Amino acid sequence: MQLIIITGANRGLGYALLKQLTLRLKTPTKIIATSRDANQGKTAIDSVLEATQAKRSKDTTLEHCLLDITDKGSITNFVSHIKTTYGPDCVNVLVNNAGFLSSDEDSTGSITEKTINTNYFGTSNLTTELSSLFANNSRVIFLSSTLCKAVKVPDEFQLSYYYNNYTTKEAIDINQLEIIEEAKKGLIQNTFPSPAYLSSKGALVALAKVLAEKFKAGPKCILFVSCCPGWVRTDMGGPSAPLSIEVGIKTPYYLVTDDFDHLYQYNGKLFTNCTVNNL
């Protein structure tokens, strides 16, 4: 049985990916859908099970787990539950989907801090804590964003800037902390698109590259990739976004299900439209 974890699976892209995988996977699979709210998470699972009842494989089962990736205690409890319930080397796929975006005024830097703590530090901490449970030929997928390419923003918020200039996790951490401090001093405004959002998503692109390099000499083969689903009509993306949610999940779904050996030659890369993005 393969074990797939999707964070933030109660709505938006996470929910749509959960539904698509439940509907289409045919090999024995347990999908763990996480959310910060128990009622929302259980409602999402019930909705998916009802919608896929006629067509899903009997070997595909779902479980909801509480997880707040901004809370280290919540991460510890979640990882402990996974290890106790499913044993060592049990995680085959981790989809780091949970995220935060707000265009509200940020005079104190609190929104910038929440954005970066959720999108980058929370995601990074969860991945680190789960890493000892990754199976051989497992995959870790970070949902990023190429929104910065669609609008005019400074070079330091471009994905290529992060991918080419940050080669250690420590350097990425420092960069993200510096942006929080600049926002608290009023030096970064929370305009649209949010610089904090763009930088945190750029940091994930760099993190995928860094982790791919770090783990390649280890005893397990682990794929680390980032992907951009595009600007999608979700609660986060807004009603004016040009892409449907069905289009948005194509690349994440591809990275979860495509042949591992084929994808592994692109370890550490960013994907858009199911192809490698050369930044």
TrEMBL record:
Protein name listed in UniProt: Carbonyl reductase [NADPH] 1
Domain of life: Eukaryota
Gene3D superfamilies given in the database record: NAD(P)-binding Rossmann-like Domain
InterPro entries: NAD(P)-bd_dom_sf, SDR_fam
GO molecular function terms noted in the UniProt entry: oxidoreductase activity
Organism: Smittium simulii
Pfam families the UniProt entry points to: adh_short
Keywords recorded for this protein, A-Z: NADP, Oxidoreductase
Family per similarity comment: Belongs to the short-chain dehydrogenases/reductases (SDR) family.
